[in-house]
Amino acid sequence: MYKQKKYLTRQAGKNKAGKKGKPVTRSRILKIKPDADVRLKKVFASIGVPDKTPFKPDPFQISALSAIDRADCLVTAPTGSGKTWIAEKAIAGVYKKGGRSWYASPLKALSNSKYNEFSEIFGAENVGILTGDRKENPDALIIVGTTEILRNQLYDAMHFGETLSADLVILDEAHFIGDEDRGVVWEEIMIYLPSRIPMLLLSATIGNARQIAEWLSLIRSKKCIVVEETKRPVPLFPLFFHPSGTLLPLITQGEHKKSTRIYKKIADYIKSKKPLLLAPVHKLPPFGKIMRVLKKYRLLPAIFFLKSRADCDNALDLCKENVLHNQHHKEKLNQRIEELVAQSPHIANHRQLHYLKNMAVGAHHSGQLPAWKLILETLMTEGLLKAVFATSTVAAGVNFPARTVAFLNSDKFNGREFLPLNPTEFHQMTGRAGRRGMDRIGFALVIPGKFMDIQFVAKLVNSPSSDVISQIKINFSMVLNLLLSHTPEQIEDILKKSFAAYLIAKERKKKKQHTGYNFRHLAGDFLRHLDFLKEKKYVTKSGRLTDDGKWASQLRVDQPLMIAEGFRLGIFHESDPNLLAAIMASFVNEMESDDSIDREFLPEKLLSYFLMVKSTLKPFAKHMTNRGFEVRPLFLRPAAAIYAWASGQSWENAILIAETAEGNFASLILRTADNLRHIRALSQIFPEAAATAAISVDLLMKEPVIMDLL
To answer: Smallest Cα–Cα separation from 239: which of 520, 389, 441?
Structure first.
């Protein structure tokens, strides 16, 4: 069993009654008094702002630029170490020669940020952006966009027998190749990208960087040079917050800097039969008091990583006594907030704005609107906030630093379950501790509690980064798009180029059992998808796309075959943009929903249309399920909420119908709009539906889902 659970069970057991009904021990909650262990005196003395010096690139940055001039290059370095500078200079080199560059990132927010950054450097007329939500200056010499857009452009280039119009491709956050949900996109790009185009991969530190480079060198027939930097730009010191309010060094710093030995006073605390607590087991710790301790020792601003969105929101109430007393800071903060809020009027009524303005604290999580999260990121980056309470989903790659990051959990929710933090996740989170150019030292603070295994985290501090493995998987969109330009036999050859196939071959040589994807399963899964497409007449018996298969390949959406079958059956409302948007939301939605909706929120024509679509597609959905393919059920509630929003009802009313957090609803709208854009692209096959989809997108994409700041 996972060590943390053992520890928590032990801690919880200390409060249980003995055989005779008498408590074995009783945990105590003391009043917090700010204090620090004597061993921290020298460490805290080093806190401060480093002297301003002319910028001088680090050796690894120079090495990376030299490498990309003659080969592919994989740069693996800690968060905040200056990987973007490498990208900027590499783009500048190509730009001076009149060449084209493509910068791909995993996030729309990050793409927007890089677009603004590069526009200032190279001139707005020379930079374009492609994220689905935005399509500006698509023929520019420098394109910034999401990885999915780049992958789709590669599909199109292969289809038309062309080569991607680029002389350099940069894949930011390249460790996403190991992401369970989206890693397949990174891997596809690496496989499909023509070897004539140099590829610069920017990654957080990963354990098997050289293995990935060897694989790329093999499939691209050109060298991939690894440039590794393990040194943090700002040193990290791990701390422990004792429930009494005393700060302690987490681990013993001796001759061995890689020590994982817990400081004796903390070891004594863990072994204690009467452990001190910061709060009762089911309550949050007193964040306001904790922040006062951090303030005394100049450890703010801080990012507190919490277990849930509700915890992040509730943490703000515990800071209400931490009112800003520095009038100058407060005036500067409020002025900046007003400037940012002016670009999104809806945010002016945000229920948490009071905490932001008066205590300089905010909650950052996926339940928040993109605009709100961006405002917090902007204020934090500008050094105007004292603390942010966030889930571990704080946007990867977005500049969101602090002097201290505080951990209350040693595990992380991956969307399905809580699992122990792995070293790479921990290093990425602690990578936000210590602001380059603003801090001489950063801190990782461990706060004890129900979900914290102190010993486990101490080991993570100096653990090497985790390996990433292939997450390639077959889906109908991939098969349809590859069949545009390849035979089934050629596609099997492409799959043999996958990172999964490479890992299997390597481990066979070592006579080890591969724990990841089995290649025979991968190839078999492709044939299974192919057979179903043949059966449903999207592919001929000889393996070529039918006319239906060709247009269905352009539906690079969540459930392409279900939607394609809907078009075949003629059930999509091609004249009502509100109904089209509503039904697409049902296909996009991934969360189970309670469909017992008050009739006043449910127009009769929407209900009858939804039921018709569901019943008409039911036989096809059942057939897919019987063949082992996942089919998500269609729920009415997301359709009703999107219908209300598209038809001009207020944001508040749409949220009331959706019964979900604002951020969740905004995400549903954005993904629905993405799906509608793919339908819009089918203008030659379904002109009426395409025209209606274009109207639907315009009806959905309005404030507060989008804002000028984005």
So the answer is: 441
pLDDT tens-place string over residues 615-639: 999 999 999 999 999 999 999 999 9
Q: Give tens-digit pLDDT for 97-136.
A: 999 999 999 988 889 989 999 999 999 999 999 998 899 9
Residue 705 lies inside a defined structural domain of this protein: no
Q: Supply the range of the domain harboring residue 323.
A: 3-50+234-461
| Counted domains in the chain | 4
Residue that terminates a domain, selected from 177, 211, 228: 228
CATH of the domain at 245: 3.40.50.300
User: Which pTM does this prediction carry?
Assistant: 0.90
**Are residue 133 and residue 191 in the same domain, yes or no?**
yes
C-alpha 353/C-alpha 360 separation (Å) is: 10
Encode pLDDT of 442-466 as tens digits. Answer: 999 999 998 899 999 999 999 999 9
| Helix/strand/coil percent split, the chain, to 5 | 45, 10, 40
Tokens matching residue 296:
């005394």
3-state secondary structure of 21: coil
Q: Do 679 and 592 sit in the same domain of this protein? A: yes
Cβ atoms of 183 and 213 within 8 Å: the answer is no
With a CB cutoff of 8 Å and minimum separation 6, the contacts of 540 are 534, 546
Mean pLDDT (the chain) is: 90
Only one residue has tokens 């943090």, namely 232
Q: Contact, 178 vs 150, CB < 8 A?
A: no
Structure-token pair, residue 381: 């980056």
Q: Which position has the higher pLDDT, 326 or 414?
A: 326
